[in-house]
UniProtKB/TrEMBL annotation:
Domain of life: Bacteria
Organism the protein comes from: Marinomonas maritima
Signal peptide segment: 1-18
Protein name per the record: YHS domain-containing (Seleno)protein
Pfam families, alphabetized: YHS (PF04945)
Domain called YHS: residue spans: 38-84
InterPro entries: YHS_dom
Keyword entries, A-Z: Signal
């Protein structure tokens, strides 16, 4: 009986800690809460996508404002997808852990999109983005492969 309990505890805990490659929230399949990831690069601000222009990538649904943005994403998804699967970049760096992100708290650094949890966390991240990117790049592979 004890072995079954230990096995079930281990099995359930591994499920509880497994994270999706793309952050979508608990009750959604939308990457970036439905914001168009290409718009950050072309319009320089977050724009909500349209249900007419959707694709699936890494088990998440990605919404776009136009067919042009959808086509741009399909051509180079890694170019437009947020770093660290859209999880909070500061949490990946400073906490070595996952946290949700707010699509309105964003930055593009060296052509890559980073999202943060909220305005306060974004201010922490903005104090030294280069350091946080370096730390997060180090932490991310082990975190996502847990």
């Amino acid at each position: 009986m004890t072995r079954i309990f230990v096995f079930m505890t281990f099995f359930l805990s591994s499920i509880a800690y497994a994270q999706d490659a793309i952050y979508t929230g608990f009750f959604s399949s939308k990457a970036l809460n439905g914001y168009d990831t290409v718009a950050y690069f072309t319009d320089n601000h977050p724009v909500e996508g349209n249900a007419k222009f959707v694709t699936e990538y890494k088990n998440a649904d990605w919404y776009f404002v136009s067919q042009q943005h959808l086509d741009m994403f399909l051509t180079e998804p890694e170019k437009y997808a947020p770093q660290y699967g859209g999880y909070c970049a500061w949490a990946i760096s400073a906490q070595n852990d996952f946290a949700s992100s707010d699509p309105t708290q964003w930055a593009i650094v060296d052509g890559k999109l980073y999202l943060n949890y909220d305005r306060d966390v974004k201010e922490k991240w903005d104090r030294d983005p280069a350091l946080h990117i370096k730390q997060a790049d180090t932490n991310w592979p082990a975190l996502i492969n847990k």
